[in-house]
Amino acid sequence: MAWADWIRGSAEIAPSLYAADFRRLGEQIDLLLAAGCRVFHFDVGDGHFIPPVTMGPVVLRSIAPGIHAAGAVLDCHLMVDDPAHHFAECAASGADSGPSAAACDRIHTRISVTGCPSGSPRTSSSTVPSGLRTSATSST
Question: What are the residue boundaries of the structural domains of the chain, listed by start?
């Protein structure tokens, strides 16, 4: 499914699950689903590419069924040294998209094999309501 198919109207709020209280992860996902969230960022970090070690496929497998049952999707950001190494496992664990292939041509083929679209929509900061803008905008 393409990003354009995920967006309802002109904007979509996509919370990062990395910001959740992991002791209450399921409860917090349910609250976000009830509030209308339909796109969730699932940030994977290995402690090398980015400093914190974050969640991975084990957590993805446990939360994906409930998120998908509610009609929502998981946008999996692989902030790791070798993202191509993890594409197949993340796709099998419930990821609905992978990271942008723009940074590395050789990984595009590996993303395509999983059936997950790659990349994030390019959004101009001028289209984001001023109350939601931050000093940095992620493009992947």
Answer: 12-122
Q: How far is CA 122 from CA 63, 99, 100, 128, 138, in A?
A: 27, 13, 11, 12, 9
CATH fourth-level superfamily of 12-122: Aldolase class I (3.20.20.70)
Sign of CA pseudo-dihedral 43, 47, 52, 57:
positive
pTM as predicted: 0.69
Summarised one tens digit per residue, pLDDT across range 82-136 is 887 888 888 889 998 865 433 344 444 444 445 555 554 444 445 444 443 333 3
Task: Enumerate the H helices of the chain as residue ranges.
Answer: 3-6, 25-34, 57-69, 87-93, 106-114
